[in-house]
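Structure ticket #2291
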Amino acid sequence: MKDKVRVTRQELTDIEVRFEDQVGEGDKVASRIPMSARHSSGADVLVNLIALSQVTDGRIVAEWGIAEPSAVA
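Resolution: structure written out below.
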């Protein structure tokens, strides 16, 4: 995961991440996270992320997610 984040940060600038919706039940939390950025090619990028996190003792112990690219201009 760290390598993926490193590569993404090299390719994208002006990254803006917002947590717009979060719902929790038991030890799981679902989040809707839109992310916008500028690609190194100059194109604007919008990606909608959906994450499901498992929390134990206040720490994320497992996480699953889907990334849906919405727009590249």
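Closing remark: Residues 2-11 form the longest helix (10 residues).
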